[in-house]
Write a structure and sequence with these properties.
Length: about 110
């Protein structure tokens, strides 16, 4: 009988240790589960942010369009320069005519 008591004591101790180990593992599992839920939510939020950025980037011009705009601005700068030269010549002509008319008027 003492033999069974000894074995029952050992089995009881092992069951107790097993229960402690199981409890410890499941509590860690719950902590990990909560952490994973938090991480999953953050990833979902980041995914939404990425979609928003991608949507905004789709509306921006690409490098080819920007290069075309640069070329057009360069062309317009040249055209404005030519117009400036013509206006300067026209200004001289108007001043000459004005000076002539003022002299003739006296």
């Amino acid at each position: 009988m003492e033999y069974f008591d000894d074995w029952l004591g050992r089995i009881g101790t092992l069951l107790g240790l097993g229960a402690i180990f199981y409890t410890w593992m499941t509590s860690r599992s719950k902590d990990n589960s909560n952490r994973l839920d938090t991480i999953e939510q953050r990833v979902a939020d980041h995914g939404q942010s990425i979609k928003t950025v991608e949507t905004e980037l789709a509306h921006l011009p690409d490098k080819d369009v920007v290069n075309e705009l640069k070329l057009e601005i360069t062309r317009l700068t040249g055209t404005v320069g030519q117009l400036g030269e013509k206006v300067t010549g026209l200004d001289r002509t108007v001043r000459n005519v004005d000076t002539y008319l003022r002299k003739e008027d006296k």
